[in-house]
């Protein structure tokens, strides 16, 4: 088994870049080298994991079309088309193996495609790597898939399944992890700058240069999120395909001329077998969550125990625990409870004004609501409980503002109102850096047209427990 990490900016394709691609010459040279290696390896099946194929929160997209098609027409380039035979036997085996492991591999039907505007055509995360590969080699079947927003363990298991399904058919396989690194390397770039951007890229590239694969799973999810990358999950799926073997990784190039990190790297399976990395991933998660649990304050602990009790007994916590403070029993306030799983939001529900007799009961009700009644997510299940992390925000009484100059997205949350429509956004949220961003998002939640409608604004502060 061989694997590659390949970037996917469309500007790399000369017909699209129109000369600008020459600013990425190191990447172009590396891609040509990779294509030559692939031609020499002669894989019968290439599985490509693309962040820009349909991505679901809890299921892995699999393309089930007999022929997988893509073109450069969306960039105004006509006549350059790609058609690949899909190995449907492997696809069906992936689906079956996923079900055995408690994972879901999902197809996109014509009905879903039309209803949600998703496509089964090759996205640019697949098209760009395939453009360069097919310059040198075309004699392969294609598996077109994506990652999903589940935890590292499930991403790794999906990679294991990809390998097993390919090997079951007796095929020589190759896996491409499509993905760019940080999108926040430069103030001049399209996504701006964050100090975590170059920090994440330096760390990841160094680990790949030294084949320190195990250390990849120690990278803080907060760091990768703030770096705004799109390839880390692809890599984690790819690494699952090497389970049980030592892995040698080699970096061919890294650069970021447009404020986005492009890395070309290869992964080779060494002959020596080793212990499963999956066991280490499971242990690291247990250790991290144990540390979080040990540092919970009364607010977080009550939110967690309230949801856990409800999941197991289907009723609210009946007795308020002894550790709850006097303030939590005597004061009233609006409360928001946020739940995250592996760094991703899993539910968030709250009350602007108090609806219960004290803060403690407000937390109990809203923790359950965040786990069961957030319409964006399915209900929390018992097997997820050990993976969840909680935030609790205690809201001040909202106050009306007369000018946006009185707002600060880091300090104040906002409430926007227009008649019966109302939207709220908490303060100090990742990616919300300006007052306009904050108000636009709040208006969107309320169904208010920010540019065309007048609306009232209130602000509030929060006491954040995390």
Automatic annotation (TrEMBL):
Lineage: superkingdom: Bacteria
The record's section on SUPFAM superfamilies has:
AMMECR1-like (SSF143447), LigB-like (SSF53213)
Task: Report the InterPro entries cross-referenced here.
Answer: AMMECR1, AMMECR1_dom_sf, AMMECR1_domain, AMMECR1_N, AmmeMemoSam_A, Xdiol_dOase_suB
Q: Which residues form the AMMECR1 domain?
A: 294-466
A matching Pfam family: AMMECR1
PANTHER family, sorted: AMME SYNDROME CANDIDATE GENE 1 PROTEIN (PTHR13016:SF0), AMMECR1 HOMOLOG (PTHR13016)
What's the name of the protein?
Answer: AmmeMemoRadiSam system protein A
Q: Which gene encodes it?
A: amrA
């Amino acid at each position: 088994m061989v694997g590659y990490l390949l970037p996917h900016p469309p500007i790399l394709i000369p017909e699209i870049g129109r000369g600008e691609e020459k600013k990425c010459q190191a990447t172009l040279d590396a891609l040509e080298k990779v294509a030559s290696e692939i031609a020499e390896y002669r894989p019968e099946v290439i599985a490509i994991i693309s962040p820009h194929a349909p991505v679901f929160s809890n299921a892995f997209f699999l393309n089930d079309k007999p022929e997988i098609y893509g073109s450069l027409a969306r960039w105004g380039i006509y006549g350059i088309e790609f058609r690949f035979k899909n190995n449907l036997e492997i696809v069906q085996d992936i689906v079956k193996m996923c079900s055995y492991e408690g994972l879901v591999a999902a197809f996109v039907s014509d009905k879903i495609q039309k209803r949600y505007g998703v496509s089964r055509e090759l996205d640019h995360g697949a098209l760009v790597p395939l453009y360069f590969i097919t310059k040198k080699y075309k004699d392969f079947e294609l598996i077109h898939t994506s990652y999903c927003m589940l935890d590292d363990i499930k991403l790794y298991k999906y990679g294991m399944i990809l390998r097993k399904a390919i090997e079951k058919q007796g095929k020589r396989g190759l896996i491409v992890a499509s993905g760019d690194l940080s999108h926040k390397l430069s103030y001049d770039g399209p996504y701006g700058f964050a100090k975590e951007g170059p920090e994440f890229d330096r760390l990841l590239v160094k680990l790949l240069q030294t084949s320190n694969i195990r250390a990849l799973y120690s990278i803080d999810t907060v760091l990768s999120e703030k770096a705004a990358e799109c390839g880390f999950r692809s890599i984690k799926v790819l690494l699952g395909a090497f389970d049980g073997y030592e892995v040698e990784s080699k970096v061919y190039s890294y650069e970021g001329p447009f404020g986005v990190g492009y890395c070309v790297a290869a992964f080779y399976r060494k002959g020596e077998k080793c212990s499963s990395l999956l066991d280490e991933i499971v242990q690291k998660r247990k250790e991290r969550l144990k540390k979080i649990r040990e540092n919970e304050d009364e607010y977080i602990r009550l939110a967690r125990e309230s949801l856990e009790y409800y999941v197991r007994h289907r009723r609210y916590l009946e007795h308020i625990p002894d550790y709850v403070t006097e303030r939590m029993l005597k004061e009233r306030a609006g409360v928001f409870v946020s739940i995250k799983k592996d760094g991703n939001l899993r539910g968030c529900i709250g009350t602007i004004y108090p609806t219960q007799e004290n803060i403690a009961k407000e937390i109990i009700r809203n923790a359950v609501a965040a786990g069961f009644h957030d319409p964006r997510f399915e209900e929390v299940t018992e097997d997820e409980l050990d993976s969840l992390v909680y935030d609790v925000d205690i809201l001040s009484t909202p106050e009306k503002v007369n000018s946006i100059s009185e707002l600060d997205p880091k300090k104040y949350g906002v409430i926007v109102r227009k008649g019966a429509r109302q939207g709220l956004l908490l303060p100090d949220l990742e990616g919300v850096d300006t007052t306009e961003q904050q108000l636009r998002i709040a208006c969107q939640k309320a169904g208010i047209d920010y540019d065309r409608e007048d609306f009232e604004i209130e602000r509030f502060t929060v006491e954040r427990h995390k």
